[in-house]
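REQUEST ID: PR-0412
SUBMITTED BY: lab tech R.K.
PRIORITY: routine
TASK: structure prediction, single protein chain
INPUT:
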Amino acid sequence: MQMFKHPLFSVGFRPLFILGFVSGALLPLVWYLVFANRLYFDISISGVHWHVHEMYFGFGWAVLGGFLLTASRNWTGTRGFHGAALALLVALWLLDRVAFWLPQAFPVWVEVIAHNAFLLAIVTMILWTLISGWQKIGKDNGYFIIGLPLFIVSKNLLLYGDSYFELAWTLSNGLFRLMVAIMLERTLSAFMQAHYNQLLPRNQKLDAAIRFSVFLAVFEAVMPRWLAIAVLAVAAGLLLYRFMLWKPKLGFSTLDTGVSFAAYLALVLSLILECVRLSGKLHTVGDVATHVFTLLSMGLVMAAMMIRISQGHTARAIVFAQSDRAALWLLGLGGLVRIVVPQWLPQYYSTILLLAALSWEAAFFLLGWRLVPFLLKPRQDGKES
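STATUS: complete
OUTPUT:
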């Protein structure tokens, strides 16, 4: 069909990043309405479970999926999935969102398929690309091959394992921590060289130890508590040691690279806070350990990644426009307000949650307003993808 030849379906990041812009703008606001009892969902899971599921597997996987579909084809030198396959992924992503409201008359297996079809399809596509091009990719891509199927496990635990909620969200959170850690490892060196002509020191043993410890931390909920704390602490310590070697003062000198360094530091802080939480000594309003990661690390990394890829992979100069910078500041400051202010003003928690949701709405609206037109147009160099 002619529709599938549209530039939108030429490469994975194009349609999925658009879903990321939309879900990033809308999902936090919808969660506020649910939290404030201004919107009621008559669905089979609690509002909190829905919120966790949608931020990881709605917003998170729209962006992560777009990145991995694009990156995996570049790593292996293949054309990658395009056309009807990408249109199908969009349809399945939308189906996952509406599956919560399927009539009760439908058999349970229909709901299970509707909720899992997108993730099963996109994980299969990414794994097929990685495994078929195994000779061309690094051994550290094995973490994707092991980790990506685990997302399917954590998703279904969130949806159907009420008594396993702790395992479900820590597994989901840990897997995204692993993805972010690998993305930062692979991109920060290139960014520093491009912006400042500076080569960051690399130590293969240190990098391997970081990847392994962050991977082990994925399974914190099934470890003895003392062991989970030790693994998280080792991961945080190794990441922080490498952070200090990677010229953070220079990296923070401009927003273009500073956003990645901020996300890196937030990843470290989230691991430390998770250690304190598991020790029973983190007495905060809200889950600070998780939100430090999701808002100040994962959110910032994904926004910056969307800015860079939406331009660089459409053959445009990578520029952080004023609106992009404003969006990144909104995400960062909104996250800080969401995490810090309730510790002093817990009586205004609902209002603070609204402010954080509005900051995400404004940020992803600004990003989408500028970048979506690039995703709908052909590459400027005339290449197919």
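NOTES: The longest helix spans residues 165-196.
REVIEWED BY: pending
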